[in-house]
Design goal:
α8 runs antiparallel to α9, α8 packs across α10 and α9 crosses α10. Strands 7, 8, 9, 10, 11, 12 and 13 form a seven-stranded mixed β-sheet that branches. Helix content is 34%, strand content 18%. The protein has three domains: 79 residues, no CATH class; 117 residues, no CATH class; 184 residues, Alpha-Beta Complex (Lambda Exonuclease, Chain A), CATH 3.90.320.10. It is α/β, with parallel strands linked by helices. The protein has twelve helices and 13 strands.
Length: 448
């Protein structure tokens, strides 16, 4: 999904400069996608969560073990670099074998699996029987030469057995390498340096220098020896004149967000303010309370008051809310109740609501396919339509109310859009400044 949504294939293809390079990049992306899918499968098997961080750690492990090789695009006429192990089952017109100077190494100082009793045959019906794990840790750190203990172990019967097993395994691997070529096989040897891996074949007839090689069955094949020296200058890749790809768009279209959160919307330019109602008294506040806690406490008190207009224990309910937000020393219970009563009386006078809904959750999809979700603080059903009231804890004075209300116009516009999708026409939109003691009407933006 990420590759498709971000147009990654188009982007890496447009880099050029040749069709071969672009095709290789696309193959590498597919290889990365396969690694991600394999990581998710491994997590499912181990009942572990699949996360982005976990996948990155998995990629680091693959890199540390040398298993993060590039993808092999079989359709590309290019050089494929890979390991001997991964060459099994494949074939190329020309195969170049390197690292032939590697010496077969017995795995004495690694985790190995071996028989408990070597005289007993391997049982296919019970493959784990007569098997054991063995691990001899290497105690000398990075020191590899001049260690008597290592020489004694490698010279022992067990060490010689491990050496023969290593040579046999390397011979099998070398057989894979030498049989991958369809037309031509190239053996890379350092001049005047031993090649223990190649010499393990014990093939005296396989020597460089002549124009032909006679195989043990008397078959004669042509041979050529070339001396290769590194170039002094390396030229960069030249652009393929036949390569073409779509150019970058002259005016890219910005991607729209999938979800719209009302509280995160910006002010709508040119929005107008309607009526401004002064409720008469500010909410007294002592000290400097946290703005978020203050806003949450005001919302909670107003929600409780409008859900239960005349509870028998109003003071205790407000006190519990203020204590929960640690605001009992900043706000008085009586002041909070008076603030709610002033708003309730004004709403009854101006709107005569048939219903009042508190903290109304909603989630709709607009015409552009975006999800709009949120909560409306106070929703009034009136004979003229629905009235939206949004509480704010802005402490500014009366002269600042209009400008501050405009800054919430984007939020109120989304409320109006969501209600329209729900067949609930909006009659008016209001900001309630609970601290300042005022109601400000934000006029809907005129429709085109």
């Amino acid at each position: 999904m990420a590759i498709n949504q971000a147009n990654v294939l188009s982007t890496v293809s447009s880099w050029g400069p040749t069709m071969t390079r672009a095709s290789q990049r696309r193959a590498n992306l597919e290889s990365l996608r396969v690694l991600a899918a394999q990581y998710e499968q491994d997590c499912a098997k181990n009942h572990a969560p699949a996360t982005i961080a976990g996948f990155l750690f998995s990629c680091e492990d693959l890199g540390a073990s040398g298993e993060d090789s590039k993808a092999a695009d079989e359709q590309v006429n290019a050089v494929h670099v890979g390991t001997y192990h991964k060459a099994k089952g494949l074939e190329w017109p020309v195969v170049i074998c390197t690292d032939l100077e590697t010496k077969p190494r017995p795995r004495l100082w690694e985790v190995t699996v071996g028989p408990v009793d070597s005289t007993k045959p391997f049982d296919l019906a019970n493959p784990l029987s007569n098997r054991r794990l063995r691990f001899w840790p290497w105690p000398f750190g990075s020191q590899a030469n001049g260690v008597p203990l290592a020489a004694n172990v490698e010279g022992s019967a067990l060490g010689q057995t491990a050496q023969r097993a290593a040579e046999e395994e390397e011979l099998r691997l070398l057989y894979v390498a030498l049989t991958r070529a369809r037309d031509r096989l190239v053996l890379v040897l350092e001049k005047e340096q031993p090649a223990p891996w190649l010499q393990s074949l014990q093939a005296s007839w396989l020597q460089p220098g002549g124009e032909r090689i006679t195989l043990p069955d008397s078959t004669v094949i042509s041979s050529l020896t070339l001396a290769v020296t590194p170039p002094t200058d390396i030229t960069g890749t030249r652009s393929d004149p036949a390569y073409a790809w779509f150019g970058a768009p002259s005016s890219p279209t910005p991607k729209q967000p999938a979800r719209l959160i009302p509280s995160g919307q910006a002010e709508i330019p040119g929005i107008c303010i309607g009526r401004i109602i002064d409720l008469g008294t500010r909410l007294p506040i002592a000290g400097a309370p946290d703005e978020t806690d203050l806003g949450n406490a005001i919302h909670a008190v107003l929600a409780a008051e409008f859900l239960n207009p005349n509870p028998s224990q109003r003071l205790e309910a407000v006190q519990r809310i203020l204590h929960g937000y640690k605001l009992e020393n900043c706000l008085k219970n009586e002041d909070m109740i008076a603030m709610a009563d002033r708003l309730r009386r004004q709403i009854a006078t101006d709107f005569q609501p048939k219903r009042m809904l508190v903290e109304v959750p909603f989630e709709v999809t607009n015409a552009r396919g975006q999800r709009i979700e949120g909560f409306i603080d106070l929703l009034l059903e009136t004979k003229c339509g629905w009235v939206v009231v949004d509480h704010k804890s802005f402490p500014g004075k009366h002269a600042d109310w209009a400008a501050k209300a405009r800054s919430y116009s984007g939020q109120l516009a989304l409320y109006e859009e969501a209600l329209a999708k729900l067949n609930m026409p909006v009659a008016s939109l209001w900001i309630h400044f609970a601290v300042g003691g005022g109601l400000v009407e934000v006029l809907p933006h005129p429709k085109a």
